[in-house]
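Q: What residues go here?
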């Protein structure tokens, strides 16, 4: 009986074939993984991100010019800006020390006024009222002090032109007074008499100076000449502007080496400065001669003396 012959050697060959066949999918899978790995796109993205980084940093850190510091850092005492000679000419019967308005920051704002009544009995009386207001702007996020002062100057002039009840209002530039100056004048009828109003607004660097000056002939007295009043107001304004420059000479402040007012040398405007145009010098109410509203401080102060007709004018009218 013959046993079948076993074929040796085929099994190993078949095994090699099966092993090789099994290895092919693994290679293909490995190749597929390699081709889908996104290594090229990843590196390209990295390059793109890297190239974008400088621009992003550049846009995130924009360059901006620094705001120009304000030139004037203090104000003179408002009741000391005019000489006794000038006060004698404009308000001859007034107390030369003046009446200072209260201020929340004397280094930023202040005002002083004088009231004069020359009572001639039955012949009538001459009344004069003078107010000098100072407002200083500090450079901050809103812009330089000079830019803010320039904008405020324009609003002050516009406000003076728009006073309610003003008759025959005119305005003209004033030469040789600060960096810019404008005079506004008009007539205003009151029961006490006819008032001649002169408002001169001037700007010197980052400070705005406003002078209100009015006069009236009461109880039959002759009405003062508006031309003479205007010349007097312009003279007072020039003196006030010069006093601002002198107070800041060599950065020493006023004569005492302190700030304005009662020695409060704060050079930083209070937060309510943004509202200054509505409360500031020669606001519509404050510029009305013979009005109680004029008792408000012309430079953002809280209180000031009474207006032309509140004391002197009314008193003269009663006596006459």
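A:
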């Amino acid at each position: 009986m013959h046993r079948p012959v076993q074929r040796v050697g085929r099994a190993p060959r078949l095994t090699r074939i099966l092993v090789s066949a099994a290895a092919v999918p693994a290679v293909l899978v490995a190749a597929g993984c390699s081709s889908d790995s996104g290594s090229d796109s990843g590196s390209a993205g990295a390059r793109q991100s890297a190239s974008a980084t400088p621009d992003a940093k550049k846009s995130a850190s924009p360059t901006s010019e620094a705001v120009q510091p304000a030139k004037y850092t203090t104000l003179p005492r408002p009741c000391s800006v005019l000489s006794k000679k000038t006060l004698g000419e404009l308000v001859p019967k007034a107390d030369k020390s003046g009446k200072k308005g209260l201020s929340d920051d004397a280094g930023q704002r202040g005002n002083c006024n004088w009231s004069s009544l020359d009572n001639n009995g039955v012949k009538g009386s001459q009344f004069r009222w003078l107010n000098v207001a100072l407002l200083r702007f500090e450079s901050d996020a809103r812009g330089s002090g000079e830019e803010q002062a320039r904008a405020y100057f324009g609003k002050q002039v516009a406000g003076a032109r728009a006073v309610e009840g003003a008759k025959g209002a005119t305005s003209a530039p004033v030469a040789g007074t600060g960096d810019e100056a404008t005079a506004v004048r008009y007539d205003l009828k009151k029961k006490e008499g006819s008032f001649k109003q002169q408002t001169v607004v001037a700007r010197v660097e980052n400070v705005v100076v406003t002078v209100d000056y009015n006069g009236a002939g009461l109880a039959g007295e002759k009405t003062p000449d508006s031309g003479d009043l205007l010349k007097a107001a312009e003279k007072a304004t020039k003196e006030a502007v010069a006093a601002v420059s002198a107070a800041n000479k060599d950065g020493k402040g006023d004569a005492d080496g302190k700030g304005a007012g009662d020695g409060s040398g704060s050079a930083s405007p209070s937060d309510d400065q943004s509202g200054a145009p509505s409360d500031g010098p020669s606001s519509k109410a404050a510029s009305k001669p013979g009005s109680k509203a004029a008792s408000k401080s012309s430079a953002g102060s809280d209180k000031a003396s009474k207006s032309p007709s509140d004391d002197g004018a009314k008193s003269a009218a009663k006596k006459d």
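A: Context that may help when evaluating the design: The mean pLDDT is 73. The longest helix spans residues 10-35.
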